[in-house]
Inverse folding.
């Protein structure tokens, strides 16, 4: 890379970057980011950059499960197959089920169902929460709809991450 930059009068071109595999944005690399798990550096950095337009610098935020981790340890919803339930449990700790939440709010939310947490808010708080957590209004917050929630949020995050990286 150094020699290519030297040959190009110390300028880096887009073509040069695209030829370097480590710097190219690929579907596989975005998928790796989406598969990152709570507590990991990659998930933390992805959430940080996804929240740049609303985060306040003086507030401490924590990685939070939208649908609480513990909710997947109890009884599965009757309408959900065992195969789906196992897949959901495997996805519960991944980026599409995570967001940043102020530390105090995270402590009070604990393992409260997402729908209950949301329904305790006033209309302004609900709107702000959906915007910050990147959850479209049409998505159900009920655990029984986790598959749809997860896949649609994952698709939105894919687009947002691609925009950040390109």
């Amino acid at each position: 890379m150094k020699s290519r930059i030297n040959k190009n009068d110390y300028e880096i071109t887009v073509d040069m970057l695209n030829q370097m595999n480590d710097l190219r944005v690929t579907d596989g690399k975005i998928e790796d980011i989406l598969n990152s798990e709570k507590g990991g550096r990659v998930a933390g950095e992805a959430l940080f950059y996804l929240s740049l337009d609303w985060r306040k610098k003086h507030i401490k935020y924590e990685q939070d499960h939208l649908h609480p981790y513990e909710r997947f340890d109890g009884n599965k919803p009757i309408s959900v197959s065992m195969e789906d339930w196992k897949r959901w449990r495997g996805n519960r700790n991944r980026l599409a089920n995570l967001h940043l939440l102020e530390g105090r709010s995270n402590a009070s939310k604990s393992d409260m169902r997402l729908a209950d947490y949301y329904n305790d808010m006033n209309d302004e708080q609900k709107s702000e929460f959906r915007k910050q957590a990147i959850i479209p209004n049409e998505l159900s917050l009920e655990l029984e709809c986790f598959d749809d929630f997860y896949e649609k949020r994952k698709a939105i995050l894919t687009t947002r991450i691609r925009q950040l990286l390109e």
User: Anything to note?
Assistant: The mean pLDDT is 87. Residues 2-165 form one domain.
